[in-house]
Design a protein that fits this description.
By secondary structure, the chain is mostly helical. Helices cover 52% and strands 5% of the residues. The chain folds into two domains: 1-40, no CATH class; 43-83, no CATH class. It contains three helices and two strands. The longest helix is centred in the last third of the chain and has 19 residues, at 64-82.
Length: 83
């Protein structure tokens, strides 16, 4: 069992199902009470994690403003692809 707070999330279209998403969140909290479950990314939003990792490797600090900017960019890109 993990004793410190950790962040847990999922990726993929399977999480578009409310039943899957809620079951996942329930089990995470049951097994890891100190875990913080973050919004689960589906579709093109899944690439946001790779962008964050790349920026961190470049030494860029990721705060809420940067995170929201990345998500907004991915959302806009997804809309262009789907058209």
């Amino acid at each position: 069992m993990v004793s410190e707070e950790i962040v847990v999330g999922g990726v993929g279209s399977v999480f578009e199902s409310r039943i899957v998403r809620e079951s996942f969140e329930y089990e995470v909290k049951r097994l890891l009470p100190k875990a913080r479950v973050v919004r689960i990314f589906t579709g093109y939003k899944a690439i946001a994690g790779s962008i964050v990792l790349a920026l961190r490797l470049l030494g860029i600090r990721i705060n809420n403003e940067v995170r929201d900017f990345i998500i907004r960019l991915v959302d806009e890109g997804e809309k262009r692809v789907i058209r």
